[in-house]
Design goal:
The protein has two domains: 1-43, no CATH class; 50-209, no CATH class. Helix content is 48%, strand content 4%. It contains eleven helices and two strands, in the order ααααααααββααα. The relative contact order is 0.14.
């Protein structure tokens, strides 16, 4: 299909517009397909934000269940939908993307990575907890980034330095997904989710979402 799109763009220029969606860029690269280099603009779609919900959302519920569109649209089945998303997509398709041989180790890695969501990552510690080699864990993280499940947040530096001395943090793309992977969807919010400092429940979420 990508070759056909390429041919139509080459023949007709801007007469046609194409919108191609998906999260398998890693697989496409591995198959050596036409990636439309120079002819496509990449856009990333993230979960909803407070402005898109007209600020009609409960900050504590956002931290507990996240902001995926389906979760906001089907509030009565939010937990079941998140558990299905994690079980059917992340644990199955992502482990295939990672070419995982030891499924139990990958499952343990996902749980530990979710528990450390938003914190400084100790790759050696995660490798020890998941019972796999450190390069394997680094490959798992790379797969989550390539499939848009998570991203690295570099440590803040006042000025550029030749040697990196601070460690980045790893964030999953949605707090509800993080809690589902950690197996904590049915538990109340705790301090690690709300914030590591002693602050009132909901305060951090209201600050992030722009509530007063």
């Amino acid at each position: 299909m990508l070759n056909e799109v390429h041919a139509l763009i080459a023949e007709h220029g801007n007469n046609y517009r194409f919108a191609l969606s998906g999260s398998s860029a890693r697989k496409l690269k591995r198959l050596d397909v036409n990636l439309l280099a120079g002819r496509a603009i990449n856009r990333r779609f993230f979960p909803l934000i407070a402005d898109e919900l007209d600020y009609h959302c409960d900050p504590d519920r956002v931290l507990r269940l996240g902001l995926l569109p389906q979760i906001q649209a089907e509030t009565d089945y939010a937990i079941e939908a998140l558990e299905a998303y994690v079980g059917n997509y992340i644990r199955e398709e992502i482990q295939q993307e990672a070419l995982v041989r030891n499924l139990q180790s990958f499952a343990r890695f996902l749980e530990v990575a979710a528990l450390m969501n938003g914190q400084i990552v100790n790759v050696a510690g995660i490798a020890r907890d998941a019972a796999v080699a450190r390069p394997t864990v680094q490959g798992y993280f790379a797969t989550l980034v390539d499939t848009l499940i998570g991203f690295w947040l570099p440590a803040w530096r006042k000025r550029a330095k030749a040697k990196e001395v601070a460690s980045p943090k790893f964030h999953l793309f949605d707090p509800g997904v993080a809690r589902a992977l950690a197996g904590r969807l049915r538990e109340p919010l705790d301090g690690n989710v709300i914030g590591h400092r002693e602050i009132p429940p909901g305060y951090f979420a209201r600050a992030v979402l722009g509530f007063k």
